[in-house]
Amino acid sequence: MVCGIAGVLLNGRGDVGLSLSVMLGGMQHRGLDSAGVALYRSEELPGDEFMIRVFTKDVIGALSKISSAIASAGGDIRNIKLNSIRGYSFDLYTVRAMEKDLPQMVKNINATELSKVLSIGRKMDIIKDTTSVEELDRSFNVSGFVGSHGIGHVRFSTESTVDLFHAHPFQSFDHIDVALVHNGQITNYWNTREGLERKGVRFQTENDSELIVHYIIDRLKDGEELKEALKASVDELDGPFSYIFSTESELGMVRDKLGLRPMVILEGDEIKAVASEENALRLLNRKGSIRNVRPGEVICWKTS
Questions:
Q1: What is the distance between the alpha carbons of residues 150 and 70, in angstroms, rounded to a whole number?
Q2: Closest C-alpha to 135, from 86, 180, 80
Q3: Helices and strands of the chain, counted as H and E runs
Q4: 300 belongs to the catalytic site
Q5: Of 2, 3, 39, 298, which residue is the catalytic one?
Q6: pLDDT tens, residue by residue, 192-203
């Protein structure tokens, strides 16, 4: 058995967190190593504010060190939502800052050696842990989230490390509000990675899912539309895979050209959804047509 991936996009604002929790819960049997979601608000924060999700060892003085790290990169903390779990914190900071200062902010926070940044966004927040879907929901109230769209993942690791930082969704700190969930393997990983590193891309892990994030962002920075970038990945990335790539306004999905990893979609007037299994879509109990994504097919849905 391998990982399970899911995505949902609503016609307007609604119960994105609940829909993802239901779909991922229905695919828990596909992986117990970790669970995670990327959730998108319907509206952006003000132009100079960002949400930063930070994982921290729950020790005395940690909050002060993180605050100093943010301030030293020009950030002004507006709010902190504390969330302690099993001796660690998954706190959500709202920070006023200039976007160009965010990479340095990430570097400063990670350099405290007490904390690591999990996500940065103006609309998106990533929540993940080495736990079950049910426990993730209980700890973070995922099902209570109301927004426009989101993606999620349950993981069964076949190669890389099992820990929080190899859990999905993946993102890049060079391009905010994007995330990816992936099921499969990229077999030309090293060749593709070397090409991206020559362009200055810095990798945080050796997970092939992170490679896809950087690959797509590299093409977006070159001016391609999301659908063009996703189509290129079908031709240039080798191996069995299906993945979902989310931005602040789109949900894109891809199945490898041989169709070696499953992907099924539901398209209705009120909701669009995608998952590794048809069962996960039927659990939503929503009207719409269901079909398999064809091998090599690329689909993009835009928010209303």
A1: 27
A2: 86
A3: 8, 16
A4: no
A5: 3
A6: 999 999 999 989
